[in-house]
Design brief:
Residues 34-138 form the Fe2OG dioxygenase domain. The chain is α+β, with helices and mostly antiparallel strands and 186 residues long. The chain has helices at residues 3-22, 29-34, 103-108, 161-169, 179-184; strands spanning 36-45, 55-60, 66-71, 78-81, 87-89, 98-101, 118-121, 128-137, 140-141, 159-160. Bound molecules: 2-oxoglutaric acid and fe (ii) ion (FE2).
Length: 186
């Protein structure tokens, strides 16, 4: 792993550890870590030409467990949809990293951690560069039993993360409002 990717993976692991601790399920953190893998992607969003849409990346939820996003310079464009349906722009300083919950942590947390829709809108006249790192689990993702009880009945069946990615990669599933709910929601 490149040093920069390694540093971002460590940041992700720290956040995941804090999440596990906050739910009192830290005993699952080490096994989780062992089955985590990471994918990094650098994105260039070209500035829109005249009469071209300023949509850089259509609204979607990440299919990862968690994603870390970093943008070069201060060319903003990332927008996140709040639970009330309002979109808000994310202003990032050069040293900021965004932690985005993916669909796998939504299912893992038994619906406690929302994986928000987000998109990229290009508003200025400059190209935008960003770097995103996605974490995926090798094997099954399942909510810890501590997060399932009478008041919080199970909302997702255990699922294989890689098989879920295959499901999402099929053209007929790309536009689902929530691929994870269609795939393994109860
Ligand atoms: O470039 C960004 O700020 C976001 C990228 C993104 O949402 C993604 O790659 O899934
Ligand atoms: Fe995304």
């Amino acid at each position: 792993m490149l040093p920069f990717s390694k540093a971002i993976a460590e940041l992700e692991q720290m956040v995941v550890k804090m999440v596990f601790e906050s739910y009192g399920v830290e005993k699952y953190y080490e096994p989780h870590l062992k089955s985590a893998s990471y994918l990094s992607r650098v994105m260039k969003y070209r500035r829109p030409e005249m009469n071209e849409s300023n949509m850089g990346f259509v609204a979607h939820t990440d299919k990862s467990f968690m994603s870390i996003i970093h943008q070069k310079q201060q060319i903003d464009g990332l927008e996140v949809k709040a639970k009330d349906g309002e979109w808000f722009g994310v202003e990032l300083s050069p040293s900021s990293f965004v932690v985005m919950a993916g669909d796998a942590i939504l299912a893992w947390s038994n619906n406690r951690i929302h994986s928000p829709h987000h998109r990229v809108m290009m508003n200025g006249d400059k190209d935008r560069y960003s770097l995103a790192q996605f974490s995926f689990m090798k094997g099954m993702v399942k909510a810890p039993e501590e997060l399932v009880d009478h008041d919080h009945p199970s909302q997702f069946k255990p699922f294989d993360h890689i098989e879920f990615l295959e499901f999402y990669s099929r053209p007929e599933n790309r536009r689902l409002e929530s691929a994870i709910r269609t795939y393994c929601g109860i």
